[in-house]
Amino acid sequence: RQDDHVDRLAIDDYRNGLITEAVQRLDDADRVVRSATAGESFDAMVADWYAARLAGSADPMIAGPNSTRRALNERARVLLKAAGELTGEPLRVAGRELLVGDEVVARRNDRTLCEPGSKDFVKNGSVGVIEAIHHSDREVTVRFEREGTIRVPARYLAAGKLEHAYARTTYGVQGHTHDVARYHPTDASGFEEGYVAVTRGRNGARLYVVDG
């Protein structure tokens, strides 16, 4: 998957348990972004992600735990709102704000969520964009990449099973190929999480860490 020799060597080191050596290779190639605090680190990652988005990238950010994923998604939406990409009156459900234009990912299989006559239903990991919000019913219409345009019912939203998709955990990006794998590990990150993250990028990995 990797085009760059540095990344291939770093992944070989990582696979063999030489984590320090792998990260040092990335650091020597200016692929490690250090910040003094978690907030500054999140800001730096989102700024890079947004610049890449403006240049045509569709890659999500990769987070370690869900708390990091939520922090990155919140920051991403601030930029998207300011740019006018998220519009309309928000729907607030399950502690989450949804707007027209929001990119979302489904977190539970539901065979009832499909276009009429289609057998392709919404699954855990299905990604789409909110096209309409139905406030009276507390529902949204989502144009999914594979499953088509589907009205997502209130019960699914109330269960918290439709999340923002700008940042995802490593579980959510397994099997995907990114142009650049932007990954934010934490002290709790383990070997498997890191390996999934650093191997996603065709043009390499970029790590965002809190120094010290």
Task: Record keyword descriptors for this entry.
212 residues, alpha/beta, five-stranded parallel beta sheet, five-stranded antiparallel beta sheet, 7 helices, 27% strand
Description:
By secondary structure, the chain is an alpha/beta fold. The protein has 7 helices and 12 strands. The protein has helices at 5-15, 19-28, 38-54, 66-82, 154-158, 170-173, 191-198; strands at residues 32-35, 61-63, 87-93, 96-100, 103-106, 127-134, 139-144, 148-152, 162-164, 167-169, 181-184, 205-210. A 5-stranded parallel β-sheet has the order 1-12-11-2-10, with helices on both faces. It has a 5-stranded antiparallel β-sheet with strand order 8-7-6-5-9. A hairpin with a 2-residue loop joins strand 3 and strand 4. Helix 1 (5-15) runs antiparallel to helix 2 (19-28) and helix 3 (38-54) packs across helix 4 (66-82). The radius of gyration is 18 Å and the shape is globular. The two termini are 31 Å apart. The model has no long low-confidence stretch (mean pLDDT 94).
